[in-house]
């Protein structure tokens, strides 16, 4: 057995794969294995070349052969886990990666793919534990900090999420998504000034980031800063002319400024873009209702449930219009339908009680 010849073929295969000549690399790995059937590194590298070609099952077969020869071959366990990860087989990926980690406890790539697999299985607490191990090994692993922050968001651990996003930003001050998600968490915590600062920093990195403008506009809207919100939200629309949520907030700002005819124009625009957008029908219907145009408002609310039969505010809106048109029996049915869909929908419950009392007083 000429091991030196097999090693030379392995080196040639590696060089070819580095040049993205994977098919030629595979030929050399196979020649090396013809010389030495127990050459674990050749099986492993052949598997990696096949994995690059997305031939995951063939790759796994190679890793398995390598491990059968050398059960302590951590690299082959890692690559096996990686191939399973690419197949979205996250539970088995974790199993193989944990074998790699038994052999090399601080193997950074095994920790990261294992953590990502756990995250993708919605095992967020286990994922966080694994991401933190990565940061213990390598405090500058910004992607681990970022993904750890995302896991904390899902668990509603907002302070911890912010801490992780800031850690990610320390490592990479150009990390756009860390600024953005940190802003969103701060918005959820009603720390509006800090949230806006995060969105502004994201926009310094990527001035065409429509979502940052949109969320900044939402923060201004919830603070009743309607003029400023319009200024910001229309920038989101300038970048993305089909941003339906931005149109809706724009229309709501106009409505709150009593610029109702302008608001109606905006709601019509958004519904031309997306006729199924129930929230825009709700906003549009409320503007018409506030103008005492009950018949028109009823028609708009009706359209919201045409596209989404389970859209609860649509039934409530229809009920309020019918009530103001003195059609109490029909209004009551609408409120009851809203409550049937959501027994905890307080607005419809209040409206139902009021309508029943009104009917009783009319009898």
Structure report:
By secondary structure, this protein is mainly α. The protein has helices at 3-18, 22-35, 40-52, 56-69, 74-86, 90-103, 108-120, 124-137, 142-154, 158-171, 176-188, 192-205, 210-222, 226-239, 244-256, 260-273, 278-290, 294-307, 312-324, 328-341, 346-362. 46% of the residues are buried. The longest helix has 17 residues, at 346-362. Helix content is 80%, strand content 0%. The termini are far apart. It has 4 domains: 1-117, Tetratricopeptide repeat domain (Serine Threonine Protein Phosphatase 5, Tetratricopeptide repeat); 122-205, Serine Threonine Protein Phosphatase 5, Tetratricopeptide repeat, CATH 1.25.40; 208-258, no CATH class; 275-363, Serine Threonine Protein Phosphatase 5, Tetratricopeptide repeat (Alpha Horseshoe).
